[in-house]
């Protein structure tokens, strides 16, 4: 019972191998409970109201301890062995339901005990066969060092087979033999469980280190500074959902009066999306010569990425600003609209073509408009408007417009911080960020 509770405690503390230790703990605790409830000294020491429930506890334990055992074996199995163990587990559950039900109905625990023994013997023979053949254990078990478990299992199976065979005859071996067999097997399982967990922890640690390197590399492809453009004030906030993200932004600064701004959002999250985001960085360098033409920039990016981003898509928006002539040009590829705050109202500027990766040569219409002092432009990815509150309502355009309106006098950097704060407040505290978020605010000053 102590080992059982300890194993359950380990399961509660670990990130990996949780179910393995949980079933090991349940099995061991049930085995120990069965020993205690069949000890007359323990039973007579119980309160009277508990003594009457002991036969029921014994019946339940007799049948369900086998279910716990094969649930553990299922966690150690892969491939076809997992299917076989799943079938044996289903049979054990069926026998347990029948045996416990018959006990409740007729008061007899032994009606289905032979079937319980048959399922146990068959399952143990399957496990022993797999462990005895190295080729099978390498293929169908989740651990590499089979010697310890093979030795413990051979000892336990030998004892269990004898106990079950003698029980069928009927004849009972001394209890000490049964306990010793289970103790050896339990120690072997615990050793294997620790091996599996430590191996998983090492792999997780290795993955975390690699993700940290990937995060550093991804941030290295983003602009390190914000360009200083005459009569324009720019602020950016980039909040990835995970260590690496599928959002990307870039500045194409021609001189002090002209600048291009690109925002892109790769479908999906994590490493695959981040790899495509890094491709956009390289592709963007190839189209800088036509930076003043948003439509051509997007066509060039799609042409380069189309053959590379298999079964994934990218939305993007590109804004070209010329402060010398007071004009801007905008085009997008399946991206949320450019927001324009002007004279106390919010305008949605849309000029969308297809997402990158759909067809090789789509058209991207361009929207031209004049810019004046006091205007505010906002480029963003859909991670800004898609967060949901506890009622399932999206943050959406309405809430976004409300935040912009209330903070229209604030500098761009403060507006962005307020937006992120509003999103955090909108979502339930228990819910983490659900998508990457990129925000760029441009004030015409």
Major sheet details: 6 strands, mixed
CATH-defined superfamily of the largest domain:
PPM-type phosphatase domain
Number of domains: 2
The portion of residues forming beta strands comes to 15-25%
CATH third-tier fold name of the largest domain: Phosphatase 2c, domain 1
By secondary-structure content and strand pairing, the structural class works out as: alpha+beta
CATH architecture descriptor name of the largest domain = 4-Layer Sandwich
Amino- and carboxy-terminal Cα gap: 73 Å
Silhouette: elongated
Question: Overview of this structure, please?
Answer:
α2 packs antiparallel against α10 (175-221). The chain folds into two domains: 2-209, Rhopdopsin 7-helix transmembrane proteins, CATH 1.20.1070; 224-444, PPM-type phosphatase domain (Phosphatase 2c, domain 1, 4-Layer Sandwich). β2 and β3 (258-266) form a beta hairpin. Helix content is 55%, strand content 16%. The chain is an alpha+beta fold and 445 residues long. The radius of gyration is 33 Å and the shape is elongated. It has helices spanning 2-13, 18-37, 40-45, 48-51, 54-75, 79-106, 113-132, 134-140, 147-168, 175-221, 270-286, 294-305, 396-406, 412-426, and strands spanning 232-239, 247-253, 258-266, 314-322, 327-333, 338-342, 345-349, 352-353, 367-370, 376-380, 437-444. The model has no long low-confidence stretch (mean pLDDT 86). It has 14 helices and eleven strands.
Keywords:
445 residues; alpha+beta; Rhopdopsin 7-helix transmembrane proteins; Phosphatase 2c, domain 1; 2 domains; 6-stranded mixed sheet; 14 helices
